[in-house]
Amino acid sequence: MPEHSTTTLAGAILDLLWRAGVKECFGIPGVHNLAFWNALDTNRPRIIGVRHEQSSVYAADGLARSTGKLAVALTTTGPGAANTLGAFGEAAISGSPVLVISSEAPIGKRHKDGSRGLLHEMNDQSALFTPLAKIRNGKAMSVSVTDAKSAIAAVIDFISGLTNAPSGSGYIGIPADLLGAEFVGEIPTASKIELAIPDLAPAIKELSGKSKIGIWVGGGGIAADSEIGKLATHLSAPIFTSFAARGVCASNSLTLQAPIHEPEIANLMAECEALIVIGSQLDGMNTKNWNIPFPKSIVVIDVDPTVVLRNISPQVVIQTANLSSALTQLGQLKALSKWADVSALNQKVRSRLIAEEKSARGIALVAAIEDNW
Question: According to CATH, what is the number of the domain 7-183?
């Protein structure tokens, strides 16, 4: 049952988001989406105001990247929704679980044949987001609904659909007059998907006997921070991260602070006898257009390895959405001795960048942020 005895559709949506663990949304109020602000209450997400619609999605993207959880932006009809597209595209291409919920022109005043000139009316507002939204079962997760029941169903569907691996971004458009109307009925509970247990035997066989193993983490590995850290410690494996995975295992002494583009980091990669790639496409930007010294033995763990297989030829591919189980099983490998002094290497790279004129100012800025964090 809903947490509040009498509620609007906007309130019911906020209840659903709260149940899903969303504690804050980002957005700008407009005449069409004020129902969300009117529905603010205890046990509902707070709405953090921003100064531009694009900023609402950038903020949601940042939250999603730092937590690995669903983040939500609320915007208003027409130009308000359109203003989010630059940020939405960045979130979408990076696989961030971001949901944009926007008002659309009131359904009660529309004409059956198309646009009639209502404020900010568009014939198909969701079409703006379709080319960028996550594709699931061959269909983009971008939809404009026309009734309250469909709105609730879409929110429930997208809460799980955008966070299930591979995660991505989506859009739900809801007529303004429905958002403020009383919602009658029960709010269904979203079902949980049980993840299959993957077979890691081929990976364990490939990695057995290797004494210098590295771990490469992409954006798809953010939610497995704890398991990655434990495995790295067990294998004494340096942790390389893509740009999308920066911050993963940040406090682990085995995490390389600089990207693979720095020569010291590339040299360490060259020393690896094997590499475990977790949730990364190994795209051109992250690999200097594939001009880094990958080891011959590579194990890929990914829910959808389509793109990564275009870029490298791994010895083993484990296709799974159950990263926790996969990484825990790799703990069956023999514990390995430390073979690389990652802390010293991090300091070596930083000292060089401080000394070089072209990078000194940038590192000074980083240091200032660290000192005042």
Answer: 3.40.50.970
